[in-house]
């Protein structure tokens, strides 16, 4: 039972940062904008969130600051791709590099410091239920918010007019423009939302999951987030499932150490990357399936005047 | 009321790409000035430290040429793929695997004075980089797996492989458990090119690669076919140009070049394999390729500029105490501003005055 509790509660915590960033990226991609700079935005959010929490002592301030900075950075991407017609790949890489540089500059004098860590939310009797309580109800508030975000994203994208507009723009921005929809504005909004969520995801890493700042701590999670949207074929529940799958994988590394198995730690560290590569190959193999689900204009230069 | 309009340029001058690059550098300087002010450094002093100071001494120029070598090699390789819209962003990983492959030979033939060792290591490094990029090519060509994501993931794998090797199988047995290989023999190292500096013959390889790239880009049918595939994929398919061939070529060439750059590091300034073998040359190479307008000649200048930013960042750290994180921010700004400015290559922004507007309005 202890093992099960460890796996479930650990997975929920480990996947939270991925959930935030992946839901944000999914919304941006649904509107037709690929943002490859997620890694940079998560890193910037992580540094900003950590510094803000250190200075103010408030987690709310930390997460808001991280979201604002992540959003601002992603809006640079929005302006480059939507106004200046830059290639989405090149622009995403550019702000990714910019974000990594910013994160390093922001966090420089905080390197190796720690903060208290986000406390568990007290859910009273629920937390006291044996096993179930330990698995699900002894988490911090961001874990619950990330689950709420999954449902909210799913609801907005599939059940509301806004969702329909976003999807229409992602499928054919030219037609949406002809219909009088504000393509640039809505895309910018989606990209900005994605940046804010990536910032929050990054801040969760540095202030809650491992409450310390170290340069390079995002360690490729931003790229795994981009891969998750492909893995989940742009469908909310599947993307969320992918995030939990990857969350559980990062537990393996801890387990190996706990059980004292003699496997090089590097072999465990590469696991998420190797699995991502295999998953990408397996999922992308079916070209028709990918074409059916991916937003048709994803990655294309916006051609409206 | 006058109005701002965006219109496409009917003609393009040869100088336009150069103007765009220079404008991007200028804007980066402006952005950098703001950055220096945040750090409490007078902007001109900061810019002087980054862009001018390294050029004042022969040591500085030597360091620039030293760092230019890997950037040049990597960017020339990457640009070939970028023109075909094949994005290898994992040059860093290919560099690492190239360095590992070369180191394996240096360890195996320890003590030899054979002049063949270095050429063998260069070839091994190239093959290592090609194998690493080849995995991405295979997955993209056969399984349609996105090469951007795969090459990035492979970089993370390469990094862990490097950590494992320097801590175990490739560690110097008499190195007090430091995570590094043996120090390379003279036969396993590049000869110094310019006396009194650390500039070695790997810069020569980079320049030869640039020459080959010029010929390849401007004279070969293969390169033309790849470019068509990048600009108009449908037209390329219609003309019967194989996209799979383009994928393989782009990744193998760029992987091989990055692998050779890795040899240049371990057989050059480092003289051994260690955990930290590249300050992000693989990623900076992406910027160099784009900043150089994906043109072999432009890339030579762009690599010199990027090397200057690297060295200047170190100088600013030493003389002004500005953290070398500014190097990363400068690199990011260069690429960001370049992308924004290159919009001006195809379009121009014009103020239209009210009477002009009336004239241009169609008669109804």
TrEMBL record, chain A:
Its main location: membrane. One of its GO terms (molecular function) is transmembrane transporter activity. It is found in: Cell membrane. It is a multi-pass membrane protein. The keyword Membrane applies. The chain crosses the membrane at residues 6-24, 36-55, 61-84, 91-110, 141-157, 185-206, 218-236, 243-264, 270-288. It comes from the Bacteria. Keywords: Cell membrane, Membrane, Transmembrane, Transmembrane helix. GO terms for cellular component: plasma membrane. The keyword Membrane applies. InterPro entries: ABC_transp_permease. This is Nucleoside ABC transporter, permease protein 2. It comes from Candidatus Rhodobacter oscarellae. The lineage of its organism: Bacteria, Pseudomonadati, Pseudomonadota, Alphaproteobacteria, Rhodobacterales.
From TrEMBL, chain B:
It is found in: Cell membrane. Keywords: Cell membrane, Membrane, Transmembrane, Transmembrane helix. It is a multi-pass membrane protein. Its main location: membrane. It comes from the Bacteria. One of its GO terms (molecular function) is transmembrane transporter activity. The keyword Flavoprotein does not apply. The chain crosses the membrane at residues 20-39, 59-82, 94-111, 117-139, 148-166, 199-217, 247-268, 280-313, 325-345. The keyword Transmembrane helix applies. One of its GO terms (cellular component) is plasma membrane. PANTHER family: ABC TRANSPORTER, PERMEASE PROTEIN, GUANOSINE ABC TRANSPORTER PERMEASE PROTEIN NUPP. This is Nucleoside ABC transporter, permease protein 1. It comes from Candidatus Rhodobacter oscarellae.
């Amino acid at each position: 039972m202890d093992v099960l509790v460890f796996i479930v509660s650990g997975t929920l915590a480990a996947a939270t940062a991925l959930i935030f960033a992946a839901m944000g990226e999914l919304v941006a991609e649904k509107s037709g904008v690929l943002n490859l700079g997620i890694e940079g935005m998560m890193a910037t959010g992580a540094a900003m969130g950590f510094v803000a929490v250190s200075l103010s002592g408030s987690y709310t301030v930390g997460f808001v600051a991280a979201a604002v900075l992540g959003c601002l950075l992603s809006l640079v991407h929005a302006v480059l791709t939507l106004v200046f017609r830059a290639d989405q790949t090149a622009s995403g890489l550019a702000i990714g590099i910019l974000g990594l540089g910013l994160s390093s500059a922001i966090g420089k004098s905080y390197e190796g410091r720690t903060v208290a860590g986000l406390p568990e939310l007290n859910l009273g009797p629920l937390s006291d239920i044996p096993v179930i309580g330990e698995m699900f109800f002894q988490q911090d508030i961001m874990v619950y918010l990330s689950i709420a975000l999954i449902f909210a994203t799913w609801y907005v994208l599939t059940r509301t007019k806004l969702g329909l507009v976003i999807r229409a723009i992602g499928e054919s921005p030219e037609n949406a423009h002809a219909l009088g929809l504000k393509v640039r504005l809505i895309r910018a909004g989606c990209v900005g939302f994605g940046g804010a969520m990536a910032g929050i995801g990054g801040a969760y890493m540095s202030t809650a999951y491992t409450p310390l700042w170290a340069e390079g701590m995002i360690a490729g999670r931003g790229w795994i987030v981009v891969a998750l949207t492909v893995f989940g074929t742009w469908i909310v529940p599947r993307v969320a499932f992918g995030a939990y799958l990857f969350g559980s994988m990062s537990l393996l590394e801890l387990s190996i150490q706990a059980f004292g198995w003699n496997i090089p730690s590097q072999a465990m560290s590469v696991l998420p990357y190797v699995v991502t590569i295999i998953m990408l190959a397996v999922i992308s193999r079916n070209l028709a399936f990918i074409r059916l689900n991916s937003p048709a204009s994803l990655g294309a230069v916006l051609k409206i005047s | 009321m006058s109005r701002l309009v965006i219109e496409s340029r009917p003609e393009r001058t040869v100088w336009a790409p150069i103007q765009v690059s220079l404008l991007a550098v200028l804007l980066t300087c402006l952005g950098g000035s703001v950055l220096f002010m945040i750090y409490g450094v007078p902007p001109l002093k900061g810019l002087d430290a980054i862009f001018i100071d390294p050029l004042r001494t022969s040591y500085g120029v030597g360091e620039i040429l030293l760092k230019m070598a890997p950037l040049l090699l990597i960017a020339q390789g990457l640009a070939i793929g970028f023109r075909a819209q094949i994005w290898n962003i994992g040059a860093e990983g290919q560099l690492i695997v190239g360095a590992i492959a070369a180191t394996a030979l240096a360890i195996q033939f320890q003590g030899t004075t054979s002049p063949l060792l270095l050429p063998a290591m260069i070839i091994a490094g190239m093959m290592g980089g090609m194998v690493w990029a080849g995995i991405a090519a295979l997955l993209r060509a056969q399984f349609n797996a996105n090469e951007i994501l795969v090459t990035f993931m492979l970089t993370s794998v390469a990094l862990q492989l490097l950590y494992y090797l320097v801590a175990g199988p490739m560690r110097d047995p008499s190195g007090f458990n430091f995570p590094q290989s043996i120090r390379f023999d003279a036969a396993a190292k590049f000869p110094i090119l310019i006396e009194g500096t650390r500039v070695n013959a790997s810069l020569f390889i980079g320049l030869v690669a640039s020459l080959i790239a010029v010929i390849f880009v401007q004279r070969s049918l293969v390169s033309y076919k790849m470019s068509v595939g990048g600009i108009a994929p449908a037209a390329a398919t219609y003309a019967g140009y194989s996209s799979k061939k383009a994928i393989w070529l782009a990744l193998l060439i760029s992987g091989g070049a990055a692998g050779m750059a890795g040899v240049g590091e371990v057989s050059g300034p480092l003289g051994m394999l260690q955990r930290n073998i590249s300050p992000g040359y693989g990623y900076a190479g992406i910027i160099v390729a784009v900043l150089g307008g994906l043109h072999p000649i432009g890339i030579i200048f762009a690599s010199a500029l990027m090397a200057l930013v690297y060295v200047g960042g170190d100088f600013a750290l030493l003389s002004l105490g500005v953290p070398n994180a500014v190097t990363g921010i400068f690199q990011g700004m260069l690429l960001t501003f370049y992308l924004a400015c290159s919009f001006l290559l195809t379009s121009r922004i014009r103020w239209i005055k009210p009477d002009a507007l009336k004239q241009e309005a169609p008669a109804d």
